[in-house]
Amino acid sequence: MKRILRTSLLILLGILFVWTLWYLYQKSAEKPVAFVTEKPEQRDIVKKTVANGSVVPRQEILIKPQVSGIIKEIYVEAGDTVAKDQVLAKIQIIPDMVGLTNAENRVRRARIGVEDAQRTFDRNKPLLDKGVISDAEFQTYQIALENAQEELRGAEDNLDIVREGVARSSSGATLTLVRSTINGMVLDVPVKEGNSVIEANNFNEGTTIASVADMNDLIFEGKLDESEVGKVRLGMPIVLTIGAIDDATWEAELEYIAPKGVEEEGAIQFEIRAAVKLDEGQRLRAGYSANADIVLDQRDSVLSIPESVITFNKAGDSAFVDVRQGEGWEKTYVRTGLSDGIHIEVLDGIGADTELKGAKKMEGEGGGPKGRRG
Q: Rounded to whole angstroms, how far apart are CA atoms 301 and 44?
């Protein structure tokens, strides 16, 4: 019985030893490397550069008051369409006390002057009628009276302007009504009724009552890196995509390239502008962030391959691909053309049915045209 047990144990040990050797051999054996295969395809190759920026009106006008005071009424709000000379707001004048006092004093002096000139005129009129004084001498008194009366009207108009912002003799013209200077849309009204505002003058730019712009004349403003600015030119077509609007593009035309760059975060950026082409009835909001795709070059329906399958020599003057030959791969020279960074045009060296060596196949990846093992 002991001999049987000993024999069985030796057999089990032998089997375990053989299995261990087999297992170690399997672990140490190199698995064959599998590669994804690629085939050339007919496609459009478009080389482009991208500029980031925003869509803004070509001309945004800031409407400012011509008098200082308090906003009494506002007649528009953001989004309203306005016409040239349309009233946007009304201002209540808060007169300056020094200016008001001076204006009142001028009126009082003018009235005294009129009264004095009138007395002189009345005193000399009978003398003219009796022939005591000549017409020429009396004319000086008449002119003095008319000048005094005109000075009084001017002083009263000045007092009205100081008090109300409008003179009674101005036929309805007033500085207290703020009017739009162009046809367009109100983009912003940064003031409210009751706010104090300052007039625009040589020493102060004034308070903005509203900003108005023609929303049918929009431009794209963006920045282009110095490495790309030399490849673009005026008149090039641009395709705009707006992040806030899905599945829509807008055409534009490059109309300005800044002659001088500005350093931003260590890179030189050049400002560009492009006129946005809107279809009939199309509307865009001012300030939308947008990306501009500028087409630098294009090839339509050409033979192309993924750029990742190409190996360029160190000099960069020749390119090679690995072409399937039986169960192996053969390095083959190809002549390339335009590249969009992902696919590259092939001018010579391979055909449409050539199988090319791609990236290593991941473990567990299935078969198919791109899953064939090398």
A: 5
